[in-house]
Batch of 3 targets.
Target 1
Amino acid sequence: SKPRDPHLTFLLGTALHWQQSYAEAVTAYKTAINSLPAASPLIPVRLWNLRLAYLAQHGVYPGNLEPRYRIASLPAAAKAPNQFTDIAEHVGVATLDRGRGVAWADFNGDGDLDLFSVGIQTQHGLFLARNDRFLSTASAAGLNDARGGWAAVSADYDSDGDIDLYVTRDAWEGAATNSLYNNDGTGHFVDVATAAGVDDPDDSFTAAWGDVDGDGWLDLYVADGITGSGAANKLYINDGKGSFTDQAVLRAVADDGKSLGVAFGDYDGNGDLDLYVANVAGPNRLLRNEARKFRDVAEAAGVSRPINGSYVPFFFDSDNDGDL
């Protein structure tokens, strides 16, 4: 029998959604929405899932959908100095691929920014800039990987002058290792994660590149354990020869708070990279780089909150005084 509780009904809808029973999922989502008070903070989440189910079923959002099932569109701010217009379809990047992470970089070395995208269990997208359009080239570039991914971070980790890619996988739809796609300089990529020692199997969410030991080679910090394993994060130190070694425990950055976001930045201005880690199952961490090890100073610095629920962090100079 179907559950009557709105929360259980919503869970039923998500289960049907994952099973690709989209019509049944739509019905369950609508039932869950109807069972909630109009002012419930859960309504926007339920509406979003309903929208995704409709898109998966029909490829479009029904124009005749009843108002209570639609996500309200807010009017543009007429006085805003800058406004944005969605041109994805016009330039050739409007793909429905359950998208997650993206990375902008000049992947083919022609001076123009290209776009790489990943989605859940779907082929990657690599879109090379061509005048005012983008050309889909993932297949020709060797990026046909049906496992998809969650986050994508780009960097020239081997310092050969071209941009490489690291893709994380979170295991919500089955265990999978991460990928390190090495750019051979011609715009073709090969997954070298296993050979390089960074094929992390511990349900990773995101990652960040940074030279933490000051040797001129980019290292890699990976946020792990978001699903069942609860594994601690990894800090892969680059040996400059194409291989990495996990030194998270050695350098005191093996956070096990189910991290959803990580960011490097020299917040104290001493010339080395520090690390901020946002956790969903514990306090956030501000890990100060003290040469051979890091020390958590988040509580003392007043940046450990919110507890149990942080997502994406980043460093920036909010008051333009030169400090992050």
Target 2
Amino acid sequence: MEDLRYFWDTDSNLESPINVLVKLVRPLTVPKLLWYNVKVKPYKTKITNNGYSVFVTSKWGRTMPFISDGPLAEKKFLFYNMHFHWSDTNAKGSEHKINHEIFPFEMHVLWRNEAYKTARKAKREYDGIVIMAYLFEVSPNENQLLEPIVDCLEEVKKGVSSTYMKDSASVSELIRLFEDDYFLYRGCVKDSKMTHQVTWMVSKQIQQIGTKQVAGCQIQTPAEDKRISDSSQFERDH
């Protein structure tokens, strides 16, 4: 566990997302990552086109989903939001690369450290935010986990707008849960105001997204009449 203590105690100035070169990855033995309350449905789930990306935010009562253990040790990280990165072609769109390979679609799931009462405060701390990254390749078959979100996108296609899921989905109904088999690294995300330290978990398992689902994700910005891509999860989130 000495490597893990060093991981958390060392500040990172590495700009992220990154190109993961698998041959340079160092194995790290840690306990399994644990997920809690991920089957609890929120009472409200909002889908927002903010002009740069699509964000998924949810409201729970007292029982919020969180992750802990694994490399997080005793720290608890509460679900914050989800958002997506893609381009107007199926050839590129992801922010992370694996051995220089770019993927058509990438999903980020943000979690904030429970020790900090708001996401704004968490973003200022070295251990405040964990981002899970999922990479997708296009498939003839639709991804059932994405369907609840894709079904709502038609209502937010024409500019900055929001809608609500008719039947809110739990975290486990929207993303693939993993306990291990991921790339772990610390990096920085910059916006116009400051640099934020982030802990990244990049799932090694490449996900599938259906051709029709990719087409359904082509949302236009109100100002430039072009498909969304290259959003910043820190400067432009809500």
Target 3
Amino acid sequence: MSKKELIVKKDMEVSDVVSYINELANALKAGKLTVTKGDDSISLTPKGNINLRVTASRKKNDEFISFELGWSTVEKEEKKPSAFSISSKDAEPKKEKTEKIKKPENKPKAKPESVAPKTEPSLLK
């Protein structure tokens, strides 16, 4: 299959973006997604496991979020999804993990066994 790509960048009101995202959700549920720009269009068939990548960032006065969805048109082995969430609420501050440092036990040190010095047998003169 040949590669075809359609990129759309556009400034829109929040309500218009929400409409597009809702339509995207409906298209994903239906298993048929068509993106049209002018006379050009591309139709996709989302199915099976969908790989989702969400990137959120902030640079000075600009904030960004991007969603990347991908799937295979041939069946692949399922992967266990990792936990994440998207919310309209602020994130709760993370609690710092406190580790208890175990103090070494005061065990008496083992005394080395005494070793008798080697003596050479005296030579009789």
